[in-house]
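Collaborator request, handled under Task 6.
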Amino acid sequence: QVQLVESGGGLVQAGGSLRLSCAASGRTFSNYAMGWFRQAPGKERDLVATISRTGGSTYYADSVKGRFTISRDNAKNTVYLQMNSLKPEDTAVYYCAADHHIHSEYVSLLSYEYDYWGQGTQVTVSS
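Structure tokens returned to the collaborator:
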């Protein structure tokens, strides 16, 4: 079992920045590819960014490419999402998720691949 706890959400003006953190506990963190997803009201949960077990491979949704950066610190069992140049359309609940995978550079793109999910943190961007 892996427990994931997100933090760092909040209210920010358009153009501002936030850094989300997701602290993991319970199993060997470096055995898991990690992802950030988001869900806006009335919409489906979408992938934002994902990172491989080593951090050597990443993937970003087109809507956040160039503005968001995913990173991880395996020594601290934490994955981060640095969000810059925020837009009102980035408003959503952001979830981190963990996918146990044998390949160290695999990035998990589909939500059903993920085994564990956090409770989410709200990000609100005002115009």
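The cover message to the collaborator said: "The chain has no helices and eleven strands. Residues 30 and 71 are 13 Å apart (CA to CA). Please let us know whether this matches your experimental observations."
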